[in-house]
Amino acid sequence: MLQVAKNIYQYRELISELAWKNIIVRYKQSYLGIVWAVLKPLMLMLIFTLVRSFVGIETGDIPYPVLTFAALIPWVFFQESTSEGVISVTSNAPLIKKIYFPREVFPLTAMATKLVELVISLAILAIMMAYYHLLPSIYALWIPAIIAYAMIVALTISFFGAALNVYYRDIAQALPVGLSLLMYGSPVMYPLALVHKKLIVEQAAGEWSNTLYTIYTLNPLAGIIDSFQRVLFKNLPPDFNALYPGAILIVAILPFSYLFFKRAENWFADVI
Amino acid sequence: MPIIEVKHLTKEYQLGHIASLKETALNGLRLLTGKGTHKKEPFKALDDVDFSIEEGEVVGIIGHNGAGKSTLLKHLANISKPTKGQVIVRGNVAPLIEVGAGVSPELTGRENIFLNAAILGIPKKTIMQKLDEIIDFAEIEEFIDTPVKRYSSGMTVKLGFSIATSMDADILIVDEVLAVGDLAFQRKCFDRMESLIKKQGKTVLLVSHNIRQVEHLCSRVLLMDHGHLLMDGDPKTVCNQFYSLSERQIKNTQDSNSKLRQNVLSSNDIDLVSIEAFDGKGLATSSVQYFEDVEFRLTFNVKNRLPKPVFGFGFHTTDMLYLATMQSINALECEELMPGTHQVQFKVSRFPFLPGIYSIRIGVVLGEFFHPVFYAENLFPIQVTAPNISRSINSGSNEGFIGLDVTWGLIS
């Protein structure tokens, strides 16, 4: 893991240049440019708001659009950096065949690119919060840490997926399907408090309720999204009870994912 | 201590696709039922290659297509990993393996300079200092803020080359890059390579099919053949060996498909049936002795009457450089050729071409207006040998192509 940090530092110029290239290439010849980056969470927010007006989701006293937008920011960031990360090695085949540098630069670059879009989404969130007269608390200082955690989660999947995708392109096809399923298993449309209330307070699934809640929070995104909303709107620190199952899972998988990537790296140029 | 050490390097590739899920599953099933799996034979791209290079050496790597040259470079640049053996490189490597690998078409020239510098690991500070020099060398001042997708292909390569050579590396790995751009720019690249080699004393590995260039630039040449290191030595010896290998190969392919029908443009009035060569004693031969008499006999099958035919007979090298062409006009009196079989004789006294492989082209035209009825080239491989010529000119392309009938004198 130390090696990753060292590589990030040593190749920071390369990562920033490549990320800059990605952004330019994506938006250079388009009229709306970088606006496209935030269109996805905005559209999803509108759809969710519309759906909620039919089905009714308990969300407490925070206006639903801003609540779901705050959930969509970490979610879309995670989803996009994972799917970009997984194809990042295969889409840079010409470079891989010709020049050597540590290949983890590619998933990291994919993430750095998405970080720029994240910042723009955060700016829009700030505007929305101002509109609803919501003020973030001092706990909002947790946000960089939450984002960093989301990056680690995305990297864990990216390393494994990107390496495997070099051998079997099925991965890049399957991942979007898996991720859109995961969205419904994450508190994006509905708040985590609702799940907590059903399972822990009302014990809706009988004796299985507590186990089910732990399984639900094994998804690191549950904790991430919930924390994001808590520190912004609820004047509360992150809920570590919702965070730790996912965190343990990630800490357990990340080293293997990284080692798998580094081992597979040796044959990228031959197989790609 | 050598700057590059390659120890028993072997690289195997699996031929065909990587196993699909279905194959993997089937193989697993066979393994379970004890039937033995389908194993594909690996292909050895490099087979037990072993050499070392000292600092400051300029080493050329030559060989036919698929001999393993580029695979070897990929191992030195750490792009591929050996199946067996070891590669030790002490120092940082600037890979010029196909320049412009990292050039992104959407970015402008200037943006690409920074991007590619980052890819090659050149610090931003260094590139800032060298920016003007790079732009100047690439000759693209006017277009530096235009996206590279609007560049001509030559401009793109020029940009790539000038970025890559601005890197301050201990070892330069060059794969066919000297063949970029127009002639003037090639000359410039060549000069820059030469100054990198001779003035800055860098270690350079150069892969090229331009053997003349290799011979000129390098202090040592490795000859690869089918993954083996065939020869390792001074440029002249190794290049000569390579020439004779190539010539043998060309002769073999030509012999195996020496159908006269190939490469023929004919009006169907006349057909070439055979070409034969005879030495000075009148014996049929396939090789010609340098500076000996030789006679060629061309057998034509004429189908329609041909008025006033003129024959042309020429020699060219295997890479289609025309060396000599002789016409029968005013030398062969022939009013007309009636249908039937005819033989044309073509005698060369003191055959002047230096040892090597040459080929023949033949044409037939009619009348005063030279109406063409038959033309064919690359028809008949002639190997020119010279038993009593010293080794140094035993290779046609080395010392030119033609020997002159000269008399030396010493007046003192």
List the keywords:
heterodimer, A: 272 residues, 13 helices, globular, B: 412 residues, alpha+beta, Coagulation Factor XIII, Chain A, domain 1, seven-stranded mixed β-sheet
Number of strands of chain A: 0
Indicate the low-confidence ranges of chain B by residue numbers. Answer: 390-397
Query: Major β-sheet of chain A, in short?
Result: none
Helicity level of chain A, as a percent range? over 70%
**Main beta sheet strand tally, sense and closure of chain B:** 7 strands, mixed
Number-wise, the strands of chain B total 22
Which structural category do the helix and sheet elements of chain A fall into? mainly alpha
This entry's quaternary arrangement is heterodimer
Give the secondary structure arrangement, pairings included.
The complex is a heterodimer of chains A (272) and B (412).
Chain A lengths: L1 H9 L1 H16 L7 H21 L8 H25 L4 H6 L6 H27 L11 H25 L2 H15 L7 H10 L7 H10 L1 H15 L5 H26 L2 H4 L1
Helix pairs in contact in A: 2-6, 3-4, 4-6, 4-7, 4-8, 4-11, 7-11, 7-12, 9-10, 10-12, 11-12
Chain B lengths: L3 E11 L6 H12 L9 E12 L4 E6 L5 H8 L7 E6 L3 E5 L11 H12 L3 H15 L14 H12 L6 E5 L7 H16 L4 E5 L3 H7 L2 E6 L2 E6 L1 H22 L7 E3 L3 E10 L4 E2 L1 E3 L4 E9 L3 E2 L1 E9 L4 E6 L8 E2 L2 E9 L7 E11 L4 E6 L5 E4 L27
Parallel strand pairs in B: 3-7, 3-8, 5-6, 6-7, 13-22
Antiparallel strand pairs in B: 1-2, 1-4, 8-9, 10-21, 11-12, 11-14, 14-19, 15-18, 16-17, 16-20, 20-21, 20-22
